[in-house]
Amino acid sequence: MAMHPFTRVLLGLSCLLVAVWLIAPTLVVVPMSFNQNKSLAFPPQGFSWQWYSNFTTNPEWSTSFLNSLKVATIVAILATVLGTLAAFGLDRMRARTAGLLRMLLLTPMVVPGVVLAIGIYAVYLDAQLVGTMTGFVLAHTILALPFVLIAVQASLEVFDKRLETAAASLGAGRLATFRTVTLPLIAPGILSGLLFAFVTSFDEIIVSLFITSPYLKTLPVQIFTSITRDADPTVAAVGTILLCVTTILIGGGLLLLGRERRSGV
Amino acid sequence: MNGLREQRGAAIELSRVSKAYGSFKALDDISLQIQPGEFMTLLGPSGSGKTTTLNVVAGFTEVSSGTLQIGGSNVVGVPAHKRNIGVVFQHYALFPHMTVGRNVAYPLRLRGVGKAELETRVRRALDMVKMADFAYRYPSELSGGQQQRVALARSIVFDPPLLLMDEPLGALDKKLREWLQLEIKRIHRELGTTFVYVTHDQEEALVLSDRIAVFNRGRIEQIGTGHDLYDAPETLFVGRFIGDSTVLRGAARSDGSSTALDVAGETVTVPRRHRDTDRPVMLLRPEKLVMRKPGVDRSDNENRLSGTVSEAIYLGSGSKYEVLLRDGSTGIVRSSLTDQSFAIGDAVELCFRGADAKLLADDSTADTTLT
Asked: Which residue has the higher pLDDT, A38 or B96?
């Protein structure tokens, strides 16, 4: 299809405009994190690494960072195992039942975060899970599960089940078939689900604010309390670090999914 | 060679096997015995039960009733992966994440074969299908015919006593199909394994098989060599499914030793009696019919039917004609090069000896299931 050069330029420009509009607010934190003064003013003045060093040395920041890392890692593993099993179950179930169950499993994505947070908080008060590691892991797993389910389901859809029949004819039992044929072929989907689950937990704020306690804070909670208390540019430094890490992780996940789609045909 | 065959191939015996899905009977009381080392083809239109039969033998589908023995032991209830049967699928089913070599090695790895022996056997299997140079390629880099040859190597590398093939050439073009048919025939000869081959292509069945079982609507219509099925079909369905044929219908009259049919006013006679319960039809093979100009060469003990040439097809080695008969049906005649040639629209007479016509019971499903 031939396109007029002028149209092409116009399209490119509008794309650029939208992209800038979407990304600019996020990118503002990057220069702010190098501010010399203890202020969140924009544009920043001077240049210094002090807020990055504050992040690593101040125990309030480093502990919450480690907490987030710990929670996100456990959530990623738990949600991936559960989500993969659920995706398999739905794939081999009667279509009507599967459709209903799938909708149920995806509700955490649809229900407003605040509503979910209030519900979880109410339950946690009784169960004495507020401010505990278990509480964080369970709540975040609920939120991360749908992402794993969607990713694994996408790769199961392009997986040719007839290969399992072929493996059986060659002498492979159920478990051997799963290990040598099914798992390697849907691995990209599982891996991208794992990444999404990790990121979902790592930057979760709404539910975390409800179930946190002064003794157990995750990084987003720490950022929020810090910025409501004073104008500490450490927030900007943390923001910059998170921006880089999540971009790499999500980018990697999308790339894996994309490769899966292409090779699956 | 014969001793070797008996040792390598497994006998199969299906006895009164049925398979029902709800009220639909995919298999309706099938009995079939296959000899060790035999090449048996299951032939029939789609939905006739031939693939279901293969799946039952492979263990992908459980029978609803009946028994199945492979190599003398009962295998009903034995899962597919414990049956030690090679299966080649129409869709190749190669593992896309493994190279050709690893695909072929897969069944050997599962059986714990040592590295040195594994390599020798993979090489031998790939040599047999002439794909040894492709061991390090991935399936996606191969053509359909090459993929199917690799799939064949993978299914014979573990020396199964029985190899099942489900329309393995169905997705390939004609030239390749014909060449691979000969390859499969050669491999069968070299291995001595029992082959069970499913196809809807009657020519393919005739090329490959020792014997053919013709399926229709979940039942076996007839089992026999290609020669048996062509020359002595037991049902109208078999007669029509294998080769070309002319079918004559009409009001029947029987006396002591012969049967006469009134085909739109012309009477044809066969020197045999039909069973009283049947509505008889006559089936004639194209080479048993002779085409003449009307009124020429009359001899008394010959049957004649008049018609008009509606299609003339030049085949190189001769010609094939379709003749529109008076009752609206079509006769098919094949003539050699030396015979007189006819053009479309010519009025002709079809002549045949009564003894050459098969007298079969009419079956209204025989025509409709062909499409």
From this structure: B96
CB atoms B84 and A162 under 8 Å? no
Q: Does the residue A121 lie in any domain?
A: yes
3-state secondary structure of B67: strand
Query: CATH top-level class for B244-368?
Result: mainly beta
ipTM over 0.85: no
Chain B residue nearest residue A183, CA to CA:
B97
Give A-chain residues touching B91 at CB under 8 angstroms: 160, 162
- Comparing CB atoms, the residue among A162, A167, A263 nearest residue B91 is A162
In one-letter notation, the amino acid at residue B91 is: H
3-state secondary structure A227-248: HHHCCCCHHHHHHHHHHHHHHH
The DSSP bridge pattern shows strands B24-34 and B39-43 to be unpaired
B98, two tokens: 């493994």
For the cut 50, the answer to whether the pLDDT of residue B371 exceeds it is: no
Closest residue to A168, CB basis, from B80, B140, B158? B80
Amino acid at the residue A47 = F
CATH label of the domain that carries residue A133: 1.10.3720.10
A173 lies in which domain range?
55-263
- d(CA A175, CA A109) in angstroms, rounded, equals 32
Domain B2-238, architecture per CATH:
3-Layer(aba) Sandwich (3.40)
Structural domain includes residue A21: no
Q: How far is CA B294 from CA B286, B297, B308, B346, B349, in A?
A: 19, 9, 10, 10, 5
Check CB contact under 8 Å for B79 and A170. no
